[in-house]
């Protein structure tokens, strides 16, 4: 259906069906980058190193440090295969992200890509999934902080009571460490993106070092017999674990939200996305193999801070566990910092389009950051992290992540077919096989998530639809364009080349 044909007479706005199909012109999207509609622009200060570290910082550590104890019982010794499966699905999608990030270097990530290709309706759904993906993943990662804070304090003969280090449902009242890490990250992000990126880079280096140190120690006690039988829970168990750990691969999505703060986004974003995926997947598989080799898979069931426990048992030296625990707290903090960063940039883009309130799009002239939006998001996420159990958060994040990734794969196919003339700094290899496989693998992993997760996802979508109908539909800037304006903008495929160069 043509969006222009169902415009409401006298109102200048399309009907609901036509509005849902209205695409945001690519040249308009790129032209708006760096502006919040009258306020200060975002500051372009990131090179390929900072972008890669944002991606690695948002990804590396979650699946190992936080939910390993909950994932191993699902897959058994084959947990490393689950990481490979999730990593493969992520890699296909990462290639699509790399092409889209070089083509449309804006802060909206897959939300913006969907808006440019599939229209406002699918863009809203994608954006709403990203809110679930980012905000809930921050909370999920922060929840695991309580385990490592207690392990660190144990080195000094101290500990936090369960009431203050676990959420309700896990034997506690409120998870204070989780809330504290989110709030500290929020304050750091408010101060400025460049400062945050520098601190994140330093923490990522520490994180990689402590994980490699764990592998070096764990391999001294490697027992190949721990991998037999390899598939005690069958292929279904491997798939279920892959679906659960998939949320830990959202880092390259976080890097793509930095499109308006990268110095050379067309060149550096694709490189950062693919490089980070290679680093993260390699380290995840290495650590998983080392952990299973050191301890039989049944040992992980119900074990908190599993890597620390392995180190302590193997070395018998509490100070080693203390150093690792302190490093793990920093590692979790870097994940919270970078993913929270991505969430604020997604909302900034949605606000720029009028689909969420303008408060999320206001950029401070002093700091060059969306201060108000960061404070709102940080507060809401902190409360969630303090009160909701980890397992429920991890699964809810995975389904939002998978859905958004699938849409990006579809966006690549759409633009290759309909806009082959657009300049691309990176092209998905083995097209169209790669984006098609990426879409199918995301759908497969979604199908392996439990009924409760799908129920939460359905409720979340209903809430999103209500918000769109009640607010987004009436404030959409693309829908506010007259028929003539919309025709004119969508009929200018060549202007993006000038803006994009």
Short description:
Helix content is 69%, strand content 0%.
Q: Can you walk me through this structure?
A:
It is a multi-pass membrane protein. It comes from Arthrobacter burdickii. The chain crosses the membrane at residues 48-68, 80-104, 125-149, 169-190, 202-222, 234-252, 273-294, 319-342, 371-390, 396-416, 428-446, 452-471. Keywords: Membrane, Transmembrane, Transmembrane helix. The protein is mostly helical and 501 residues long. It has one domain: Amino acid/polyamine transporter I. It is 69% helix and 0% strand. The protein contains 23 helices and no strands. α6 crosses α19. 56% of the residues are buried. Mean pLDDT is 81; it is low at 1-11 and 494-501.
Overall body shape: globular
Give the SSE order as H and E letters.
HHHHHHHHHHHHHHHHHHHHHHH
Rounded to the nearest angstrom, the distance between the terminal CA atoms is: 33 Å
Largest sheet composition: none
Strand coverage percent = under 5%
Mean pLDDT: 81
């Amino acid at each position: 259906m043509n969006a222009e044909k169902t415009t409401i007479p006298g109102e200048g706005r399309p009907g609901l069906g036509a509005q849902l199909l209205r695409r945001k012109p690519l040249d308009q999207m790129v032209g708006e980058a760096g502006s919040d509609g009258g306020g200060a622009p975002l500051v372009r200060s990131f090179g390929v190193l900072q972008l890669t570290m944002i991606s690695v910082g948002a990804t590396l550590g979650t699946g190992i440090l936080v939910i390993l104890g909950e994932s191993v019982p699902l897959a058994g010794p084959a947990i490393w295969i689950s990481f490979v499966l999730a990593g493969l699905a992520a890699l296909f999608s990462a290639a699509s992200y790399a092409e889209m990030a070089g083509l449309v270097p804006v802060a909206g990530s897959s939300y913006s890509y969907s808006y440019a290709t599939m229209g406002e309706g699918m863009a809203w759904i994608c954006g709403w999934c990203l809110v679930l993906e980012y905000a809930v993943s921050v909370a999920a990662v922060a929840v695991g902080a309580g385990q490592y804070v207690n392990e660190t304090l144990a080195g000094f003969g101290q500990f936090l009571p369960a009431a203050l280090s676990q959420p309700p449902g896990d034997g506690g009242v409120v998870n204070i460490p989780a809330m504290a890490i989110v709030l500290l990250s929020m304050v750091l992000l408010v101060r400025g993106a460049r400062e945050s990126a520098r601190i994140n880079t330093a923490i990522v280096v520490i994180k990689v070092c402590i994980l490699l140190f764990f592998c070096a120690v764990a391999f001294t006690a490697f027992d190949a017999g721990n991998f037999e039988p390899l598939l005690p829970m069958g292929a279904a168990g491997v798939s279920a674990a892959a679906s659960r750990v998939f949320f830990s691969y959202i880092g390259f999505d976080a890097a793509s939200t930095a499109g308006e703060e990268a110095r050379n986004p067309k060149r550096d974003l694709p490189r950062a996305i693919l490089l980070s995926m290679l680093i993260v997947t390699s380290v995840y598989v290495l650590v998983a193999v080392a952990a299973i080799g050191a301890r039989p898979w049944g040992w992980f069931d119900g074990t908190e801070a599993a890597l620390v426990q392995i180190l302590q048992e193997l070395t018998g030296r509490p100070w080693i566990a203390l150093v690792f625990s302190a490093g793990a707290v920093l590692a979790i903090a870097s994940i919270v910092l970078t993913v929270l960063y991505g969430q604020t940039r997604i909302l900034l883009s949605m606000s720029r389009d009028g689909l969420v309130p303008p408060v999320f799009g206001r950029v401070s002239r002093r700091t060059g950051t969306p201060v108000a939006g960061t404070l709102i998001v940080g507060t809401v996420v902190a409360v969630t992290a303090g009160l909701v159990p980890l397992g429920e958060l991890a699964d809810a994040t995975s389904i939002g992540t998978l859905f958004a990734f699938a849409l990006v794969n579809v966006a690549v196919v759409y633009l290759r077919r309909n806009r082959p003339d657009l300049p691309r700094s990176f092209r998905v290899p083995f097209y169209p096989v790669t984006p098609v496989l990426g879409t199918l693998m995301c759908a497969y992993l979604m199908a392996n998530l439990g009924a409760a997760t799908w129920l939460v996802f359905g409720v979340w979508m209903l809430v999103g639809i209500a918000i769109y109908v009640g607010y987004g539909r009436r404030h959409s800037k693309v829908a506010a364009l007259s028929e003539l304006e919309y025709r004119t903008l969508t009929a200018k495929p060549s202007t993006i080349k000038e803006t994009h160069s």
